[in-house]
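User: ok so my PI wants both of these folded by tonight, can you help

Assistant: No problem, let's get them done. Here's the first:
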Amino acid sequence: MAMKVKNILIRYAISTLGLILVALGVGVSIKSNLGIAPPSCPPTLLNLKWTGISVGTFTWMMHLLFIIMQFCILGRKFKWRYLMQIPAAFVFGYLCDASIWLFNAIDAPSTNYLVQILLCLAAVVLTALGIKLEVLGKGWILAGDMTTAVLCQAVKGRFSTVKVIFDISLVAITAILSFIFFGKLTGNGSTVVIREGTLILAFLTGACMRFTDPILDRLFGHMVPKEDE
C-alpha cells in the first residue's frame, strides 16, 4: 500500500512539473507580445476585455466547458476518471496566473523583435518539455488534450489532424471575439494575442518534442512507475 501511494506521488510530481513548465511557457509567450499558443488565446483575449478576471480563471472556465463538451459527445461512455480534469484545470489555471505575474514583475512586454522571437522560441521549448512530462507522469489530465482525443474518437480521425483543426478553431474564435471587442483581429492594440508567434507555437512545439522527448525519457523514464505497480 505504501509503495502504491509512493508511486502515485511520483507520477503526480512529474505531471505537476509538466504543468508548471507549460504555464511558464504561457507567461513567456505573453511576455514576447508576438502571439499566444492557440489553447491560451481565448483566455488571454477575454482577460483583455474583462481585466478583473485573470487569464488563469478564464483558462479553468474554458477547461470546464471542454469537459462538458466531452460529456455531451461521450454520453454514457464518459468515465469517472475523466473528472480528474477538473482539479487539473484549477491547478493549471492558477499556475498560469503565477507565471504571468512572475514575468510581469520582471519587465514589460518586449518590443525588440529579436528578443520577441527568442522569447517565443523559449516558450516553445518550455511547452514541449511540459507536455512530455504531463504524459510521462500519467497524473493530471488537461481538458484541452482530452477533448482533442474525444473528438478524434468521434470523427475517427488522426490525433495530429484533429489537434490542428481544434487549435485553428480556438484561434478563429479568438480573432472573432477580438474584432467584436476591440475592432482588431490580433488583440486590443497593446497586447498581441494572435500573430506569427501563435503559428510558431502551434507548429514548432511538436517538432521540438522530437528532440526533447528522448532527453526526458532518459532523465525521468526510470523514475515513473507503472500504474499497476
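One down. Here's the second:
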Amino acid sequence: MGFTFVTKLPTPEEIRQQLPLAPELAAKKQERDEEIRKVFTGESDKFIAIIGPCSADNEEAVLDYVSRLVDVQEKTKDKLIIIPRIYTNKPRTTGEGYMGMMHQPDPEKKPDLLEGIIAIRHLHMKVLQETGFSTADEMLYPDNLPYLSDIMSYIAVGARSSENQYHRLVASGCDVPVGMKNPTGGDLSVMLNSVVAAQVPHDFIFRNYAAHTPGNPLAHTILRGSVNKHGQNLPNYHYEDLRLLSDLYAQRDLQNPACIVDTNHSNSGKKYQEQIRIAKEIIHSRNHADDIKKLVKGLMIESYIEPGNQKIGEHCYGKSITDPCLGWADSEKLLYEIAELV
C-alpha cells in the first residue's frame, strides 16, 4: 500500500477530554437542538437560515462574523432560527485546493491534521461560548463526526457524498437534522434514497466497533442545483422544482418531509449576489402554496464579512478563500427581509 502513516491521531474521546464542553454550553446546545427539531417535525413554523462563510478559514474573522448574527437573531427570533455555517471540511471536485481548517489550520502552511482537529473543535466551541449559537458543518469524513457531534445542531452531507453508503449509515445515527444534498448530476431520486437510508436503522462497522443506529427521523433533502453533461449549471429552486420534490416525497413513506434550499452553488452558478433574488423567489413559492410552505423549512446562504472571494495569501480580512460569498451588509439586509416575508 502506498500509505505513509505520519501521526497516530487522538480519538474523539481523547480530544473531548482535552477540550471538554462545559455543562452550561451542553445545555444551551440541547435547547437549540429542541428548537430546531420542532421546525423539522412541523411543531414550529419558524424558518431556518443556515448562513456563513463557504469555508471557516480564520478563527478571528469567523467569530467576528458570527457575533454580528447575534443581534439579527434577537430581532428576528419570532420568525427565524439562525444556524451559523462553520464549514471546516471542504470537498474539492478534483481533489486539489484548500480542503478546510481540519486539513490546514493555517491555509498558507502545510497540512497538519492533528492541529486541525484541535482547531476545528476549538472554533465550534468558541462560537457556542461567545455567541450562544450551536453550529452547522459538513460531514465530509464520517469517522471524524464524533470530534464535533456534541457541539453541532445541523449536519450537511454534500453532493459528492450523498450517494455514499457510509455517509448514509452514519447519518442514521445522528441525533440532529442531517441534510442530504442532491448529487451534482441532479437526480432527486438518489437524494431521496439517501434520506430513506438515513431514516432507517443499520448495523455496520464504525471506528473499529460493531455499531447499531436507530435511524434519524430528521434526515431531509437539500436542493443545491446540478450540472449537466455539458458542464452547465441547472438550478432546482424554482416553484416547479419544489412542486416536483413535494410530489416525490408524497410517493414515499418518509418521516418529517422537509427541504432546505441552497441558494448558492449550482442554483446561483456561484454568482453570489444572485442568492438575494433566489432567496426571495423561494419564499414567494412557499407563500404561494401551503404544501410547499410546509416542505421548505429554510435556506442555506454563503455569506462572510467582505463580498466575493480572494486567493490564499491576499489577506483581505473576512473574505472567502473558496467560493464567493455575500458581504455582511447584504447578508444582514437579506435576513431582515426574509423575516418580513416568511
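The radius of gyration is 19 Å. The first strand starts at residue 47 and ends at 52. Good luck tonight!
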